[in-house]
Amino acid sequence: MKEKLKSLALALLIVFSLVQSYYLIYQLPGSDSVITSETNYVKTENMGQEQAVEQFIFPDQMVVHLGEDRHTVFYPRTTFYNLIYSRLEGRSFENFQRRTVQSADWNVIRMKNAGFELSFPGGIPVPLLQRVMKLSSDPVFEGESINRIWIYIDDNGKKVHALFFSARGDVVYEASKADLTAQDVQQHVDFGQNWTPYTTADGKVYLPKENMSMVQTLIPIGVFSTEQMQRSLFFDPSITRNIQEKDGSEIYTDSKHSLQIRQEQRWMSYADPAVPTSGNSTPAEDVLAAVDFVNQHGGWDGSYRLMLQDGIGHMTDVLFQQYYNAYPILDTATFRYGTMRMQVQQETVSLYERSLLYKKEGSGTKSAVELPGGAKLVNRLHIAAGKQEITGIAPYYHAELKDDGLQLTPVWRVQLGNGGVVTIGPEEK
């Protein structure tokens, strides 16, 4: 009997020892495991929040045509912009008819007919646009990328035209069945009756007739450390090695991927050269892969809008434009901040670039400023642009790093025909 009790006690001790060893190796539930595998790896460093692709798809501006060549512009997150866009998300558009852009005189329609335009610079692939709007399936239409949606009422004030312009610039699709009445469109247009009036000569450049009130602000910021970025991007940061570059930047590599840190610019570039060369993927699939990549490697530290740029070959060049309240932040060659850029091929991210700066919680100091409008703006545009054609203008925030935070100053960002960009700052008091 004693021998049986001894054997039972010994067996219990062995079981207890095995259980204790398991917890020492894998730690307690809810803690990070000591032993992990690449197959169950999700993320190691939380630097922001996960977001769905729908949160990045919205127009950069909403132009309202009031008739009689009167216009105004709404910007993201303003009251009327949100109201119109949220209503459109619940409407359905079906039976798309394809026609050439030359099939109508858009300048006449812009001047005479009440309606509004939604602008998506760079274009949004239809499969992504279908995630935020109810667009019927159409094999030809679904292969397009849309850079403008124009909804207006005809001359008789009864029929609604819903047009989707291809980013290629030669084709427009009209939804012959739209869940919108003339009264719906007119109500949306009426929101702009008492708003700042704008003028346009070509339907591309809209200039306010009055000064534009904005807020200059100083926001508190922090800096992501090199260690944070390594933990975020490398499966095992302990095996990375450091290479010092002559320009002062540092490169960290695990022999498969590389992370370049430019401390002076507070900027990082992550590269994965092992991109699949066979097979095909669509721009929409590559965008979804880009969003998933950021979700799994740190998250999003602010509000961004999706923009697609011209890629090379089968590469999809994805740009996420950062916003502060209603306006985007200007990324310049001298101070890299305000964008997150990715190159994706076969749903694999080969390049990921972003600022190491992030906005901290809390409000900064604010002061009211005015951007010039009317004749003052026209005069300053002539000086700033010189003989170059002006192809676009929009309000932005110019970011400048200060000792106590990041100063965001409102400016007009002016796009020139030669690809250059100039800015026009606030009125001097």
From TrEMBL:
<feature type="domain" description="Regulatory protein YycH">
    <location>
        <begin position="3"/>
        <end position="416"/>
    </location>
</feature>
<dbReference type="Pfam" id="PF07435">
    <property type="entry name" value="YycH"/>
</dbReference>
<dbReference type="InterPro" id="IPR042274">
    <property type="entry name" value="YycH/YycI_2"/>
</dbReference>
<dbReference type="InterPro" id="IPR009996">
    <property type="entry name" value="YycH"/>
</dbReference>
<protein>
    <submittedName>
        <fullName>Two-component system activity regulator YycH</fullName>
    </submittedName>
</protein>
